[in-house]
Amino acid sequence: MAAWGRVVNNLGVLETSLRAGALRHDSDATDNTIGTDRMQNGLAQRAFEQLSGADGDANDLSKGAQKAEAPNAMRHVASLSMTKVADGLIDPKLMLSWLLTSLGAPAVFAGALVPIREGGALLPQMLMASWVQAMQRRKWAWVLGSAGQGIFAALIVLAALTLNGAAAGFAICAALAGLALSRAVCSVSYKDILGKTVGQSRRGAITGLAGSVSSMGVVILAILLMSGLFKDSRIVTAAIALAACLWGVAALLFSTLKETKSDPSKAKGANFKILKEDANLRRFILVRGLLASTALAPPYLVVLAGGEGQSALGQLGALVLASALASFLSSYVWGRLSDRSSRKVLMLTGIVGAVAMLAAVALSVLGLATQIWAMPLVLFVLMIAYHGVRQGRSTYLVDMSPKNQRSAYAAVSNTVIGVLLLFVGFAGGGAALVGPTATLVLFAVMAAGAAVAAIGLNKIEAAD
Questions:
Q1: Which residues contact 145 (CB under 8 A, 6 or more apart)?
Q2: d(CA 118, CA 111)
Q3: How many helices (DSSP H) and strands (DSSP E) are in the chain?
Q4: Of 149, 316, 148, 309, which Cα lies nearest the Cα of 224?
Q5: Torsion angle, CA of 182/188/190/195, rounded to 10 degrees?
Q6: What class does CATH assign to 72-257+270-454?
Q7: DSSP letter, residue 265
Q8: Distance in Å from the first CA to the final CA of the chain
Q9: Rounded to an integer, what distance in angstroms lies between the CA atom of residue 118 and that of residue 127?
Q10: pLDDT, average across residues 241-252
Q11: What are the structural domain ranges in the chain?
């Protein structure tokens, strides 16, 4: 019995020693984890401060959001960069239009692509806003929307590989409609998420940086298209497949965002009463609607340029390259400027856009529009203005919206803009019956009018 007692005692000592060792191991592992997290957060903080010009904590964020702001900002940059590359790879105005033509689909389907994409992404947001506002963590809406865009992009690839003619047109347009609805979910939720996780005066820099970074991927695609190495539509199909993957990865990364809970009971819901109550929002929507001319003008520049001497893929590559280079050179700059005064950015982009469109008209009148340098140069300047419009309008809307109504303001604004885009598109189509120069003159007047109207917007940023 005595021997058995000694065995039990020894086993007890051994167990105690093992537990002590395990505790020391767990403590060391915890210390290492904490040390790694601190190092990663420190790197993110330094990168965030350098990129955004941030100085101190953001007073408009909660304490928890302030601590997570730097790593969250880097997640924003990475996720947005991937989705913006995907947007460029599947651009309806260029990539999908070319793909449908190569598949032998009737021209009516190519003409329907932009209205499907823009209308589907903007018009449903009023219905979605209440659903988003009922969520405590709105990042899951964005994750769902990004994953949905990836799935519908994959369906476009499947249609391109298996169908031709009108069948391909119907299938691709249907998949694009699903993609647009998924995009609407991302759009209606993102401004709220951005406002909760990144402080005022650095939001423009973060979204602008994502625009510049993503443009390099699109530049590579444009160079490949112009190189002459690819003779058929397989490279376009492969680009759309890559877009599907990027949306999926972006959804996974965004799901790791550290978002503080929202109180759904404080949300007022999205309705048009906001327009009656907020005169500044009405003026902002007017400015944004007039600046839509910078997005609608590029096809008319292409008409003026002619381009019969280039291959189809070469023409596509030149258009993609002009847009991507403009985004690369200007998005980050526009973002930083928007943090100082998004109102002045909207004014400046209206002027730049109007000058670019009038320059195209002047070159056409002088008989220089078909020169190899003419329209590409004008298109480049116009796309710089367009990317400035995107940065300025996004930053201004987030900064002007009450904290608990960002989703509602975004939904109301985007719904009205969706209707205005349809109206402006029809107006442009009517002017096109007279000729592309008349259309560009109309669009230039709209852009100049936007610059004038933007003067009356409220000053939102402290540096304005």
A1: 182, 183, 184, 185, 186, 187, 189
A2: 13
A3: 17, 0
A4: 316
A5: -170
A6: mainly alpha
A7: G
A8: 88
A9: 16
A10: 98
A11: 72-257+270-454
Question: Tokens representing 395?
Answer: 């930053």
Tell me the residue type at 239: A
367: number of Cβ within 10 Å: 8
Residue 186: HSE in the Cβ half-sphere, 13 Å Cα cutoff: 27
Written as six digits, the tokens of 200 are 């005022």
Q: Which residues contact 2 (CB under 8 A, 6 or more apart)?
A: none
User: Of all residues in the chain, what percent are helix, strand and coil, respectively (each to 5)?
Assistant: 80, 0, 20
Of 386, 325, 326, 377, residue with least CA distance to 350: 386
With 0-12 / 13-18 / 19 or more C-beta atoms within 10 angstroms meaning exposed / middle / buried, residue 107 is exposed
In this structure, are residues 288 and 446 in contact, taking their beta carbons and an 8 Å threshold?
no
Percent of the chain with pLDDT over 70: 83
Contact between 90 and 157 (Cβ < 8 Å): no
Q: Do 128 and 402 touch, CB atoms closer than 8 A?
A: no
Helical ranges in 53-164 per DSSP H = 63-89, 97-102, 107-122, 125-133, 139-162
Alpha-helical (H) ranges within 227-297 are: 234-254, 273-277, 279-291, 293-296
Core vs surface per residue 58-86: b (16+ CB within 10 A) or e:
beebeeebeebbbbbbbbbbbbbbbbbbb
Q: What is the pLDDT of residues 177-225, one digit of tens each?
A: 999 999 999 998 998 899 899 988 788 888 888 888 888 888 888 888 7
Tell me how far apart the alpha carbons of residues 381 and 326 are, in angstroms, rounded to a whole number: 7
pLDDT tens for each residue of 382-420: 999 999 999 999 999 989 988 778 888 888 898 888 887
User: What's CA 369's distance to the chain center, in Å?
Assistant: 32
The string of pLDDT tens digits covering residues 144-176 is 999 999 999 999 999 999 999 999 999 999 999
Tell me which amino acid residue 416 is: V
Instruction: Report angle CA 97, 99, 102 to the nearest 5 degrees.
Output: 110
What pLDDT score was predicted for residue 18?
33
Cβ(217)–Cβ(328) under 8 Å? no
Q: Which H or E run includes 351?
A: helix 312-365
Tokens of 48: 């965030």
pLDDT single digits (tens) 357-368: 999 999 999 998
Query: Counting beta carbons within 10 angstroms of the beta carbon of residue 271, is it exposed (0 to 12), middle (13 to 18) or buried (19 or more)?
Result: middle
Instruction: Report d(CA 110, CA 108) in Å as an integer.
Output: 6
Q: Would you tell me how many other CB atoms lie within 10 Å of the CB of residue 351?
A: 16
Q: Which of 371, 390, 364 is nearest to 309 (CA)?
A: 371
What's the whole-model pTM score? 0.74
